[in-house]
Design goal:
heterodimer, A: mainly beta, Neuraminidase, 4-stranded antiparallel β-sheet, globular, B: alpha+beta, two-stranded antiparallel ribbon, 6 strands, 26% helix
Chain lengths: 273, 205
């Protein structure tokens, strides 16, 4: 399968639809709207890449996710802010211990998951914010190996959690209860089917397959659920120094990738689909 | 080593050992050179091997080839507080070499085999990819070629390895031959007091 680059959203700058200093996380909702977490703002773009709305977060935002009811969760240091679809703050979950550095957020049918890079763990909460259990922390003996400082994961429609474990060059599958179900991926510095460097993949998305981003050099790939490489979606378009590129995929098969140096979101779509 | 020893405790002990070793070594020479003298040091922000933004280029080895001291007074130093303790360390392995049956690169990077490693913390005997490692540079073998520095820096690594002038080896030439050759002007002179402070700060940060 091949992908082509079809759109570029954002970029570095001070205009409302651009990012001044950081672009950390992206997510897409069921309607194809793109949510970008950068600087201390959430920006919402429509499917054509036009800025529809934006609002400020209390602290620099590290991640964003959209729940099925349209609520927008913004991960930050030591807290998650929850907004309605218009950007009105409706709740804040604060926890010094469990939400040290929230670099990813996702949802199961009955709960909310938060990746805490400060403790290299995924936290599972119920919908009211009550802590339920850890995922990935101390799994086997060492848990998630993330030298790059970002815990990232995605959740499929069966509530299976796909967590990037870059130090092990794997994407690991967990149940919501924290049981390790298996993994895909292996180290290889030459074969593109493997993950290279010290610690890849850094970020992951799931939608009819597993999508990953890598650093040094930056690369985006698609795998099937058995771990077979389907496509190298892109490599050369990103700034060579960018890392921890957030990734999302929508129902149309489009793949969105945040370049953390160019502060732009690259959109790719499959060819001949 | 106790399995109950936490990773943080372990790193703390390693860091304290490094401080003691450093104070017993290079820093002692600095103290002897006090009283307004200046010493040479590598500015990591200028050195092309460690400077951020330089990717996809060959490592510069002028510190190896230009120093008047046999084997060079510049050596690679791993700052443990920054090191990611990775299983596949690009400064330790040649990550583009063929993968062996353990799933690791089959070749090491250092041409002088100056980097050793050992598992630390809780080792996972069933899954070697699940272990943390301490990387130790044997400065008696290192000649400052910079290959490991180039591979360690961000974004590939965390930039814990840099080139440093070792004061117990440097003869402190008035006109350092490396500084004359370095196109980046990365060899700079520092007052001894500042160099000593850097040395302490670096090891307690």
């Amino acid at each position: 399968m091949q992908y082509r680059h079809v759109q570029l959203i954002g970029g570095k700058g001070t205009a409302p639809d651009r990012f001044a200093a950081t672009l950390r996380g992206i997510a897409v909702d069921a309607h194809g709207q793109l949510y970008a977490a950068g600087d201390s703002e959430i920006k919402v773009f429509d499917a054509a890449g036009r800025l529809k709305k934006r609002w400020r977060t209390t602290r620099p935002v590290l991640s964003a996710a959209v729940a099925g009811d349209g609520a927008v969760y913004a991960g930050q240091l030591r807290q998650i802010e929850i907004f309605d679809g218009d950007g009105k703050l409706v709740n804040t979950w604060r926890d010094e211990r469990l939400l040290g550095r929230v670099t990813a957020i996702g949802f199961t049918k009955d709960g909310v998951l938060a990746g805490d890079a400060a403790d290299r763990a995924i936290r599972r909460f119920d919908r009211s914010g009550k802590f339920v259990n850890n995922i990935g922390k101390d799994n086997r003996v060492n848990g998630l190996l993330i030298p790059n400082g970002v815990v990232d994961f995605a959740v499929d429609e069966h509530d299976t959690i796909y967590a990037a474990n870059p130090g092990k060059h794997r994407v690991e599958r967990y149940s919501p209860g924290g049981e390790l179900l298996g993994h895909i991926g292996r180290f290889d510095g030459v074969d593109p089917a493997g993950f290279t460097g010290c610690c890849n993949p850094t970020n992951v998305a799931v939608r009819k397959g597993v999508f990953t981003t890598e650093k040094a050099g930056p690369r985006v790939k698609a795998y099937d659920f058995a771990g077979n490489l389907i496509a190298v979606i892109a490599a050369d378009v990103f700034d060579a120094n960018c890392k921890n590129m957030s990734i999302a995929a929508d129902a149309r098969g489009r793949v969105y990738v945040a370049d953390t140096v160019k502060l732009a979101i690259f959109v790719f779509e499959p060819v001949n689909v | 080593m106790s399995e109950d020893l936490s990773r943080r405790d372990l790193f703390s002990k390693v860091a304290r050992g490094t401080v003691l070793a450093a104070l017993a070594g290079g820093a002692g020479f600095l103290v002897k050179k006090a009283n307004g003298q200046v010493v040479w040091q590598v500015n990591a922000a200028r050195c092309i091997n460690s400077r951020l933004g330089e990717v996809g280029v060959e490592a510069c080895n002028l510190c190896t080839t230009e120093c008047v001291v046999a084997l060079s007074a510049v050596r690679a130093v791993n700052e443990y507080s920054k090191c990611g303790r990775c299983n596949i360390c690009p400064a330790y392995f040649n990550i583009t070499s063929a993968v062996n049956e353990q799933g690791q690169p089959s070749e090491k990077l250092c041409p002088r085999d100056a980097i050793a490693r050992k598992p630390i913390g809780k080792a996972d005997p069933e899954d070697p990819a699940n272990n943390f490692y301490e990387y130790i540079i044997d400065e008696e073998k290192c000649d400052g070629c910079g290959k490991c520095v180039m591979q360690c820096k961000d974004p590939l690594g965390l930039g814990s390895i840099t080139l440093r002038v070792r004061y117990d080896k440097c003869v402190n030439c008035n006109s350092c031959t490396i500084s004359r050759a370095c196109p980046q002007h990365a060899l700079v002179q520092l007052p001894v007091e500042e160099a000593l402070q850097q040395s302490v700060l670096k090891r307690t940060g």
